[in-house]
Amino acid sequence: MKFFTFRGGIHPPEEKETTAQLKIEKAVEPATVIIPLQQHIGAPCEPIVKVGDAVKIGQKIGEAKGFVSAPVHASISGTVKAIGDVPIGTGNEALAIVIESDGKNEVDGSIQPKGNIEALEPKKIIDIIKEAGIVGMGGATFPTHVKLSPPPEKKVDTIILNGAECEPYLTADHRLMLENPDDIILGLKAMMKAVGVENGYIGIENNKPDAIDMMLKAVEKESNIKVAALQTKYPQGGEKQLIFAITNKEVPSGGLPMDVGVIVSNVGTAAQIAKTIKTGMPLIERITTVTGKAIKEPKNLLIKIGTPVKELIEQCGGYVEEPGKLILGGPMMGFAQHNDEIPAVKGTSGVLVFNKEEAEMPNPLNCIRCGRCVEICPANLQPVYISENSLANRMEHAEKYRALDCIECGSCSYVCPSRRPLLPSIRVAKNQIIAKKREQKKSN
């Protein structure tokens, strides 16, 4: 079998063996959920409930007002206890709705099956996805209905599902492919019909041979869906890297996958689309890997959106030793947290807890101009120069070095022998450049 890949990348320790063979467990129902109104890229939602209201499972509680946005729904039944700003996993604050469970698990009356894919019109499929608040569940959280609505001049002919799960430690997508392959295929077929494309691929790294075998069986009768076995390398699951590995098409600088006729989604997103079509239930839960040396019993949990991270850790036996670092997502692209009181959201693919030894960070040294960051950069950038200009507050120069093309994979920081803060400083540059462009747009 041929294994597809891309230029650059790294091979960090996988650290998946602890949870790769553990079946998905349904987490204990939380007594209280904290549901942020911004769990996606784009504009935040506006609350459509008030303090004191009774809500049911699946009921819409936050309305999306912008096109690039996604509604949010109650993941438990109960009473709205508060609406206010709370810390979220990105390090910012967001308006959130706090719901206290009534223990009844009542489902909202609007939750009804949507019918067979064959009978649904493409626009109806996109509307179902939009109303269900479905976003990219690999961690990027881009609203899926927007991805599936390319402008008429962009001719899309291929949809790729990312099953690479190239981040170390994470095994949620791996378990999903083993335990629920049919929903992944059903969701992919729904997306293909919605956009009117003929070719579908599911990319899986070859460190998951059981998942490759399972998905190959699932597509045996599908003439236009193929499984692409990928070389195990980080960041194999990056959109542009996945597209190049499977189709040999290169997304241009500043461009989007649709510029080369491709849409990339996640296996978890596809499975959620299938679930919504079959049952009517919006995105109110997801699979999350809770692991790390400071966790007593690592698990793959099916969790309710809005569950405090602290409760998830307690369901895994709690801390076995004093934690050194808590990360939401993977160790390469995830966000370190100040505490464990924050809520898990639609993009929480992992909760990692490192011990003190793992979390220790060496002091950065001067750059030795070794060029390793340039050699391995999967986006063909020069991270050292973007970082250097960012640290000197020369953002216009950082932009000239294509800071906005950085996919924030963290490979440069990983290989740097001087332990320079490459990724953090590049993120600062990107944020400032984007903020400046927004201000300029408003003033014009």
From TrEMBL:
It is found in: Cell membrane. One of its GO terms (cellular component) is plasma membrane. [4Fe-4S] cluster 2 binds at C377, C406, C409, C412. The keyword Electron transport applies. Keywords: 4Fe-4S, Cell membrane, Electron transport, Iron, Iron-sulfur, Membrane, Metal-binding, Repeat, Translocase, Transport. Binds 2 [4Fe-4S] clusters per subunit. Its cofactor is [4Fe-4S] cluster. Its EC number is 7.-.-.-. [4Fe-4S] cluster 1 binds at C367, C370, C373, C416. Its main location: membrane. It comes from the Bacteria. It holds the Pfam family SLBB. It is an enzyme of class 7 (translocase). GO terms for molecular function: 4 iron, 4 sulfur cluster binding; electron transfer activity; metal ion binding. It is a peripheral membrane protein. Residues 357-389, 397-426 form the 4Fe-4S ferredoxin-type domain. HAMAP family: RsxC_RnfC. Belongs to the 4Fe4S bacterial-type ferredoxin family. RnfC subfamily. PANTHER family: ION-TRANSLOCATING OXIDOREDUCTASE COMPLEX SUBUNIT C. The complex is composed of six subunits: RnfA, RnfB, RnfC, RnfD, RnfE and RnfG. Part of a membrane-bound complex that couples electron transfer with translocation of ions across the membrane. This is Ion-translocating oxidoreductase complex subunit C. It comes from Anaerovirgula multivorans. The lineage of its organism: Bacteria, Bacillati, Bacillota, Clostridia, Peptostreptococcales.
